[in-house]
Each structure stands twice: as structure tokens, then as C-alpha cells.
Amino acid sequence: MDARVRPLRIPPEMAIYAEKHEIFDLVQTLVKHVMVDKPEDPIQYLINVLKRDSVDVPRIIVIGPPASGKRTIATKLCENTQAIHITLSNILKGNTDLTRAAQQYQERKQEIPKDLWIQLIQQRLSNTDCLRRGWLLEDIPRTQADALRLQEAGITPDHVVLLEAPDVVLIERSSGKRIDPVTGDVYHVTFKWPQSADIAQRLETPRTVLPVDVIAKKIQRYRTEAHALKFTYQNCLKTINADQPHLDVFAQALNYILSRRRSASPFTPRILLFGPPGSGKSLQAKLIAQKYGIVNICCSELLKAVSADEHHMGELIKPYLESEQQVPSSIVLPILTERLSRIDCTTRGWVLHGFPHDVDQAEKLHESNFIPNRVFFLELTDDIAVERVMLRGVDPMTGEWYHSLYKPAPSPEVQARLWFNPRQSEAQLLKRVKEYWCNAVGLQAFYPQAVCINTDQDPHTVFESLESRLVGRLPKVLPNREIY
Fold first, then answer.
1. Whole-prediction pTM value?
2. Cβ(270)–Cβ(370) under 8 Å?
3. Which of 73, 69, 67 lies closest to 484, judged by CA?
4. pLDDT in tens, the chain (484 residues)
């Protein structure tokens, strides 16, 4: 092959494989690790990283004022993500030179130096369990200076959860805390009282419960640093109102942890639009293509263009189009796959509507390695679908479409020359709508990640719904874990 000749076709398998296995993200993550850790032997270092169970492991920080529920939320997040729960107290339980040095400071009732704390955290996070499963730092860091020291040491989180609540709520929570001396579980006289009478009888007030004025001072001390911490982690920060049931707080935190930050990796949209007649597939495909520069492929328009050519495929298609019969898949698929294989579709992406019509066609498209990464079902009731199509006409001079109710012709002259398809009878439309819904159930099962959108609203509102799911990355899925 002449290297100077630009290829007209790129195999679709390349992009599908790269996206499926997140090759671009993997390379990006590996480069970040190398730049942060600066190993002596980068090649061997990368080999060791790739040998881990997962390269993209959780790196989470949970911070907030006293009594905001950090321990409860951090514990449940670790249960669901398998991340290692790191606190200031369990860091000191090791038996290393650094931990022994820190313990000596504690025995002398002296404050542990900040640099020693950073070394202790760095040492703990470098252990095999944290490298393989990820980590969650609870109440670390507490100041902006500590956060900057962590960054200098290469400790950067992917997600920071900041719990917030009014001071009066925090004081009430702190003063009402009770602990089970048998299990160590924490309860509260107002917010979380045990259901078991035996547990309730043995609850004790923990020694850490402080007078109200002391709690207020600790909260105020936190507030003085909170703004600077928010600024430091502004690009990965999620603030959650902790003045609500802890299960609701946890659900919001977990949803954020599972969300994926926008990737700088190449992304080629491959979009499928389904919907009954009148649902607006053509309009939405046009809007998507115009804004994002991807190729708009309407299967029926593609077949009409091919039938206009005087070659073999055009002659095969003409009889079906003239009699308004569905063109067989054996004819449509080669034409469609050839169009999707062209360089513009491969590099810019595509939005396809009008095919597939049923599961059999969807399977054939999948077997041809044209696999969509976004699928939308535009839903509409039957009566509105009929109304939209029956009252729709085209201006033969401009090609502009108008609708008697939603987009009237601008003048009587235009209204007079509008052309309404005489073959679009109500009976025919209802038949097409019925056929669509018969196939839609199977297609939705074939594309389980598909999103259903109500199109009985303003077209630009529908476009915003499509767009929000088009540009955002799909959430992570944790294997063998129950998501609350």
C-alpha cells in the first residue's frame, strides 16, 4: 500500500476495540502515573502497573465538619467500591520506622510534624492493597497546606466528597452520639437509634463527646479552612447536604464516585435513533450532526440516492421504492455498511436513523461490526404521531417542511403550494406505528443501555436531553456489588 495515499476506509473494529477496552484512557493513565511517580525504570514500572487487578482504581477523599457523618459514608463507600479505608488513626498502627517515629511523638504528647504525616500517608498508599484496590482518605487533608503537600507527594484524588450541614445540626449530632461498646457501632439519640432494645440498653456516651462550646470552636476552625480546601479540589469536588438521612447522602456520594470525569481520549460518536413516525428522528439527527460535525445518515435517503445511480444496486432498489415496500436487508446492509465504512464516518462519527427496523437487522448490523455507543428511543403516543404526520407538508420550491398546527406556512402563497403526501392515510400511519411498537420491545432488549426520551415536547428540549447523554461518559459498573 502506498503510504502517501490516504485510506478511504478504516476498519470499524479498530475504534470499537479501543473504546471497549478503553485503550486511550489506559495510555493516559499510565503516562500520568509515570509523570507523578518518576520511576528509575519506567518500562518495568509500567509492566508492574499493568499487572495490577485494575489500573483505574478508586482514589477518594471524604471531608467535612465534625459530626457530618464522614465515618458512616466512608465506610459504606469502601464496602461498595472495595477501596481501602484510610484514617489518621489506622495509619499509625503499622510497624515501620515512620510509624514508630510518629508513636514516639504521641507518647511525648507532641504534635506529629506535617512532613512526617505526609510520609506516613505516602507509605500507606504505596502498599499492595491500596495499589490493587484503590483508597479512600477520611478527613484527610484538613487544611489547604496539607492538601498541597499531598499533591506535591503525587497523592491526587479522582473524587472528593465534601459533606455539609448547618452548625446547629452538627452540634446536635455531636452531643447526641452514642456508641455500642460490644460492636463499636455508632448511634444517635435522635437520628439513628437502634431497633434492638438490648443494644439500646448497653449504649454509652463516648469519651470523645465534647461540650457544646468546644464543638462549636472545632466547627469554626473547620470553616476557616473549608473555602481553601474547596478551591484546591474544585475540579473533582462534590458538595453534598449531610442534613438528610444517611442512606440518601450515601446514594448521592456513590453516584458521584461511579461517575466518570470527562476524558481527553478520542471519542467517535456512533448513534442510533429509533422512534415511530412523527417522533422527530430526522430533526434530532440534523441538530446533532450540525452541532457536533458528525455524519447524518438517513437510511431511506441513502437508498433513494443509490437508486438514482444507474448501476446494479440502484436497479435492484427502484422497484421496492416505487411500490413503497421495505427494501430487503440483504440489499440494504451492503449499501449501509459501505457508507458507514467511509473515512468521514470513521473519523467524525455517525448518527443513523431508519435502520435497523427489527432485531434481525440489528443483529446483522452488529455482526458487521457497526456497533453504536449511544442508542435513543424517541417515544410518542399514537394519536400525536398521526397528527404530526397527517398535517405535515413540504414546500416544493424551497424543500422546507411546515405543519398546520406546530409550524404554519409563513404566507397564504406558501400554504397554497404545500404538498401533502396522498399516500399518508391515517390507516397506513397506524399500521406503521403498530409495526414499530411490535419491534421496539425486542430492540430495547437488544440495546439494554438505550435511553428512552419523551418527544411530546419542544424539539430543542428533546435535543438537550439527547445532548446531555451524548457528551457524558457512561458510568462505571462495579462487578458483583449491590448498588443502593
1. 0.55
2. yes
3. 73
4. 455 555 445 566 676 777 777 777 778 778 877 776 677 888 887 887 777 656 678 899 999 998 898 998 999 999 999 899 999 888 888 788 888 888 888 888 888 898 899 999 988 988 888 888 889 999 999 999 999 999 888 888 989 999 999 988 888 887 777 888 888 777 777 767 788 888 888 888 777 667 778 888 888 999 998 999 999 999 889 999 999 888 899 999 998 988 766 555 567 889 999 999 888 899 899 999 999 899 999 998 898 888 887 667 777 888 887 777 788 888 899 999 989 988 888 888 899 999 999 999 999 999 888 889 899 999 988 888 877 777 777 788 887 777 766 777 888 888 777 777 666 667 777 888 899 999 999 999 999 989 999 998 888 899 998 988 887 655 554 444 333 3
What secondary structure does DSSP assign to 4-56, as a single string?
A: TSPPSB--HHHHHHHHHTTHHHHHHHHHHHHHHH--SSHHHHHHHHHTSS-SS
Encode burial over 412-422: b for 16+ CB neighbours within 10 A, e otherwise.
eebeeebeeee
Spatial CB neighbours of 176, under 8 Å, sequence gap ≥ 6:
188, 189, 190, 191
